[in-house]
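Supplementary notes for students who missed Thursday's class. We covered one full example, reproduced here. Read the sequence, then the structure, then the short commentary at the end.
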Amino acid sequence: MFEQGYLRLFRVGGVPVRAHWSVPLGLLLLSRLRFAPGVWLGFVIVILLHELGHALLVRRAGLPVLGVDLSGLGGLCRFAGPASPWQAGVIAWGGVLAQAPLAAGAFVAWRAGLVGPSSTFAADLLDTLIYVNLWIAGFNLLPVPGLDGATAWPLLGMWWRRRRAPRPSTRPTARAEGRAAERGVVVPLDPYRAKRRAERESDPPDLPDDVRREMERILKDAAADARRKKDN
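Structure (token representation):
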């Protein structure tokens, strides 16, 4: 929606972060037009963490991250390159998964007495990091086009279909064995039988008795002729 009016703030892990001029207006609307720096800081932290969660999984998918933009309506992680449906689903979950530890950590710290609403700023900050954080996560997971939920929830169906898909068998079929034999490749499904077969193939073939006797007679005659020629 916003294409101009951005100010580059800083970089996080090499990712440039920009803020749109509408950010102060969005923060005022969020705090109901009252001076609430705790709400403003907490909201910026939640949105920035959400978009950096997307950016981290974009990089894990091998795609370049162009930048993270903050505006009065929220945030946007810009990246280049085509993403497969599986990659898009994983990236869509990145924002909510990055928010969840922040909400859980703030809630545990509050319940354990490590932090507390000692001032209006601290109370607003704590409320934003927990309750507003969870509200933003739930809203983003709605299966509505334009929100993360429209791409994130189909990932569960793809994961289930992959899990239920039959795995290819590693045992060669009879047809594969036939093709291997035609190429001169032995598939030793049973090593002992394969060894015995090789030993049998290495033994000389058995000859009929009459052929064997004739060959012995020829060899004896040849040896006798050789001795006579040597004596002469």
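Commentary. Strands lie at 6-12, 15-20, 65-71, 74-79. The longest strand covers residues 6-12. If anything here is unclear, bring it to office hours.
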